[in-house]
């Protein structure tokens, strides 16, 4: 009887050690895969290239946060860069895209961008608002609907360089006609924080893109 009990306990201990080893191997594998993926995603983010078309029907400014009734410093950078491209003659019509950041704010991101551009001398009739988007995918999806409504075919997408890879992949997935990117570097944003967040956002987008290809989304 004692031998049987001892044998049973020994077998139980062996099974527990085997499960422990398998668990540790699985955990280690996941950690390694996570590190490798993060490195790949960071490389993709860093590989974005600014190559705007010489001429496009519209310039689409992707939204970023408002600070009350004013664009945040990061959003101002996108707007100022868009104005440079506008004055260079690359496009004569804007689509500004972004919804309401917080319920108490007086303007959506799009409305805040319009106000900034009008104050900078852009005719208000050359600015088209997309007021609903809450993500990069929605920015470009809803802006695409505005383009189709007005018969516009080509677009220069304006955003920060760390955001460029994901924005280009979204535009390509949505079927934009030869989209081009005009990217600006930031001197005001904490880039370690924003690039780390972009790795997570790019990871989510990669999963979403797979679901879109499968027809789930």
Key features of this structure:
217 residues, elongated, 7 strands, 6 helices, alpha/beta, two-stranded antiparallel ribbon
Write the layout of secondary structure elements.
Blueprint: H1 2-46, E1 58-62, E2 66-67, E3 70-71, H2 73-87, E4 94-97, H3 109-119, E5 127-130, H4 136-150, E6 155-160, H5 164-173, E7 180-184, H6 191-213
Parallel strand pairs: 1-4, 1-6, 4-5, 6-7
Antiparallel strand pairs: 2-3
Beta fraction of the residues? 5-15%
Q: Please give the order of strands in the largest beta sheet.
A: 5-4-1-6-7
Assembly context of the chains: single chain
User: What integer is the average pLDDT?
Assistant: 92
Structural class: alpha/beta
Number of helices: 6
Rg, nearest Å: 24 Å
Helix-residue proportion: 40-55%
Shape: elongated
Catalogue the unreliable spans: none
Distance between the termini: 61 Å
Note the main sheet: 5 strands, parallel
Summed up, what is this model?
By secondary structure, the protein is α/β, with parallel strands linked by helices. 55% of the residues lie in helices and 13% in strands. The model has no long low-confidence stretch (mean pLDDT 92).
Structure description:
It is a single chain. With 217 residues, this protein is α/β, with parallel strands linked by helices. The protein contains six helices and seven strands; from the N terminus they run αβββαβαβαβαβα. It has helices spanning 2-46, 73-87, 109-119, 136-150, 164-173, 191-213; strands at residues 58-62, 66-67, 70-71, 94-97, 127-130, 155-160, 180-184. Strands 5-4-1-6-7 form a five-stranded parallel sheet, with helices on both faces. A two-stranded antiparallel ribbon has the order 2-3. The mean pLDDT is 92.
């Amino acid at each position: 009887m004692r031998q049987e009990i001892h044998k049973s306990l020994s077998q139980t201990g062996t099974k527990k050690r085997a499960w422990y080893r398998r668990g540790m191997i699985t955990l280690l594998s996941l950690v390694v895969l996570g590190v490798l993926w993060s490195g790949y995603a960071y490389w993709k983010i860093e590989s974005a290239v600014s190559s705007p078309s010489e001429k496009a029907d519209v310039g689409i400014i992707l939204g970023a946060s408002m600070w009350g009734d004013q664009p945040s410093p990061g959003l101002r950078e996108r707007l100022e860069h868009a104005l440079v491209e506008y004055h260079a003659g690359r496009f004569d019509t804007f689509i500004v895209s972004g919804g309401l950041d917080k319920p108490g704010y007086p303007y959506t991101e799009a409305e805040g961008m319009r106000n900034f551009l009008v104050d900078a001398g852009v005719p208000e009739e050359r600015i088209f608002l997309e007021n609903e988007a809450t993500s990069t995918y929605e920015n470009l999806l809803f802006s695409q609907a505005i383009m189709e409504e007005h018969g516009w075919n080509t677009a220069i997408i304006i955003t920060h360089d760390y955001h460029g890879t994901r924005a280009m992949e979204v535009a390509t997935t949505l079927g934009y006609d030869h989209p081009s990117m005009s990217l600006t570097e930031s001197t005001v944003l904490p880039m370690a924080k924003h690039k780390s967040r972009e790795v997570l956002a790019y990871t989510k987008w990669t999963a979403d893109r797979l679901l879109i290809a499968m027809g789930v989304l």
